[in-house]
Specification:
This protein has helices spanning 3-19, 47-50, 82-95, and strands spanning 24-28, 31-36, 39-45, 55-59, 74-77. By secondary structure, it is α+β, with helices and mostly antiparallel strands. The protein has a five-stranded antiparallel sheet. The termini are far apart. 24% of the residues are buried.
Length: 97
C-alpha cells in the first residue's frame, strides 16, 4: 500500500489493537484484518488495490452490529480524523460484545 491508504491502514491498526487487544491481526485477501476466535471480525480495503475512489473499513457477520432488519457493514474512508476514529472505536466496542 502507498500514500494515504497506507497511513490509514497504519492508524487503523493502532486503533484496533488499542481498542480490542484480543483481536488477532491477519492478512485477508492481501489486506489488514482482525480475527476473533479465528474468524475475521473487521478489515480494511485499500482504494488503490480495488480501484475504488475511497478505502473502506468493514465488519464481517461475526461482528454484533445487527440493528433491526438493515445495518451498514462497511464504511467509506477518505480521511481518518479524530471524528472518524471515535466512530470506529464505538463500532469496535459494539462488534466485540
Amino acid at each position: 500500500m502507498n500514500g494515504s491508504d497506507r497511513a490509514m491502514a497504519t492508524r487503523l491498526h493502532e486503533i484496533v489493537t488499542a481498542t480490542a487487544p484480543t483481536l488477532e491481526p491477519k492478512t485477508w485477501y492481501g489486506m489488514p484484518a482482525y480475527a476473533k476466535d479465528g474468524k475475521i471480525l473487521c478489515f480494511f480495503q485499500s482504494a488503490e488495490k480495488f480501484g475504488s475512489r475511497y478505502a473502506t473499513f468493514g465488519f464481517s457477520d461475526e461482528a454484533t452490529l445487527d440493528q433491526g432488519a438493515m445495518w451498514p457493514t462497511s464504511f467509506a474512508l477518505t480521511d481518518l480524523t479524530l471524528v472518524e476514529e471515535k466512530k470506529i472505536v464505538a463500532l469496535l466496542k459494539r462488534a466485540m460484545r
